[in-house]
Amino acid sequence: MAKFNVYDCTMIELDKHHSDRRGNLSVVQNGDTIPFDVKRIYYLYDVPGGESRGAHAHRELSQLIVAVSGAFRVTLDDGNVKRSFFLNHPYQGLYVKPGIWRDLDDFSSGAVCMVLASEVYQVEDYIRDYDEFLEFRKIQNKEK
Ligand code: TYD
């Protein structure tokens, strides 16, 4: 399994079809916009102000995180470096590679966080304990 750091995670500009009169449309398409096929979509909404979400890493899963409405912050952590992204445009997506810890906070009122995921839901893919995450990163280092 390749080991990624926070600088491997980037904002992707989505294909956008903006018109003055009829409003806007953005597209994410398999084999085109992102380097994985989407197997699952979920979204967070009605997150109360001051709440945070995430607080986990995935062993294998890749994700594209989109603020389809409103705004929030995503802080990525590779066990070494932390990097924060403020998502507030529906035509951008944050591409998060496997093995990266993420925290989401600072949700605006009405924010909707849509996540496009490379795998179906698998509880074993989650690391929810930060110390376990650091251990996982160390093991990955040794395998390198
Ligand atoms: P959780 O992982 O805690 O959300 P977040 O990390 O974004 O704060 O998920 C909340 C609940 O939803 C938890 O009981 C697991 C469930 N869930 C699914 O059943 N399927 C899914 O695809 C996801 C993402 C969560």
Q: Can you tell me about this structure?
A:
There is one protein chain. The chain is built from 1 helix and 12 strands; from the N terminus they run ββββββββββββα. A 5-stranded antiparallel β-sheet has the order 1-9-6-11-4, with no helix packed on it. Strands 8-7-10-5-12 form a 5-stranded antiparallel β-sheet. Strands 2-3 form a two-stranded antiparallel ribbon. The termini are close together. The site of thymidine-5'-diphosphate has 7 residues, from β4 and β5.
Question: How are the secondary structure elements laid out?
Answer:
Blueprint: E1 10-13, E2 15-19, E3 23-27, E4 40-44, E5 53-58, E6 63-69, E7 72-77, E8 82-87, E9 92-96, E10 101-105, E11 112-117, E12 126-127, H1 130-143
Antiparallel strand pairs: 1-9, 2-3, 4-11, 5-10, 5-12, 6-9, 6-11, 7-8, 7-10
The structure holds thymidine-5'-diphosphate (TYD).
Strand content: 35-45%
- The overall strand count is 12
Radius of gyration: 16 Å
- Ligand inventory: thymidine-5'-diphosphate
Q: What kind of sheet is the major sheet?
A: 5 strands, antiparallel
